[in-house]
Amino acid sequence: PKVTIKSAVFVGSAVERAGYPGESLPEVAFAGRSNVGKSSLINCLLGTKKLVRTSRTPGRTQTINFFRINDAFFFVDLPGYGYAKVPAAVRARWGPMMETYLKERRTLRAVVQILDFRHPPTPDDLALWNWLQATGVLTLPVLTKADKVKKSLRSKNLAQAAAALALTSCDLIVFSAVTREGRDLLWDRLMPLVVP
Ligand code: GDP
C-alpha cells in the first residue's frame, strides 16, 4: 500500500528523558554516522525537502529530535556519531543520551540504522549495531548513497555489509535519497511497525 504523508510536524528536541514527548504513539528512530545521509533519508521518506535540516557542519546536532507524522506515529532523529571534530565533552554525552533513549523508550518499535553503501561498516557502526542486537532492539539496516556505487560493485558491497552485520543480503535495504531507490521497500518494512 502506498503511504501518504498528510502531516509531518517537528515536535521538539530533547537531551534528557524529561524532554521526550509523551509515549502516546508508536515510533521509529533513525541512527547513523554523522554525514551518512540520515536527514536526507528521513526527508526522502516524508517527501518534503526541508523538514529535517541537512547539515553542512556534521556532528552539530546532538539532540534527539521528534517528528509527529500523520498524527499517528513519531519519527525520531537520533544524534549522529563518529565525527572526529566533535568536542570531547559533546561526544561523552552521546553514549548516555542514546542508551537512555534506546533502553527506556517504551513506544520505540524499531531503529533504522543507516550505513554508507560505498564503504564497509565502520567500527562505530558495528559497535551500535552489536549493542542494538544485544539489547534486543529491532533494527532495520539501510545502505544509503546507492547512486554513488557503480553497478559492478553493488553485489560485492552488499555481501561485505551483510557479512559484517552477520545477516544475509536480503535483510539489507539499498537506498538512495537522490534516486529514491529503496524508499517503497523501506516504507513497506516500516508501516507494520507503526500501526497502533
Ligand atoms: P546526516 O548528517 O546523516 O543527516 O547527512 P545529510 O542528510 O545531511 O547528508 C550528508 C551529505 O550527503 C549531503 O551533502 C547530502 O546531500 C549527501 N547525501 C545524502 N544522501 C545521499 C544520497 O542518497 N546520495 C547522494 N549522492 N548524496 C547523498
From TrEMBL:
Task: Point out the signal peptide segment.
Answer: none
Q: Which organism is it from?
A: Desulfoglaeba alkanexedens ALDC
Q: Which SUPFAM superfamilies match?
A: P-loop containing nucleoside triphosphate hydrolases
Q: Name one GO biological process term.
A: division septum assembly
* One GO molecular-function entry: GTP binding
Purpose: Necessary for normal cell division and for the maintenance of normal septation.
Q: GO cellular-component terms in the record? A: cytosol
Q: Does the keyword Mitochondrion apply?
A: no
The name this protein carries in UniProt is Probable GTP-binding protein EngB
Protein origin, superkingdom: Bacteria
UniProt record similarity statement: Belongs to the TRAFAC class TrmE-Era-EngA-EngB-Septin-like GTPase superfamily. EngB GTPase family.
Give every EngB-type G domain span: 24-196
Q: Per its UniProt record, what Gene3D superfamilies does this chain match? A: P-loop containing nucleotide triphosphate hydrolases
Q: Which cofactor does it need?
A: Mg(2+)
* A Pfam family matched in the record: MMR_HSR1
Keywords of the record: Cell cycle, Cell division, GTP-binding, Magnesium, Metal-binding, Nucleotide-binding, Septation
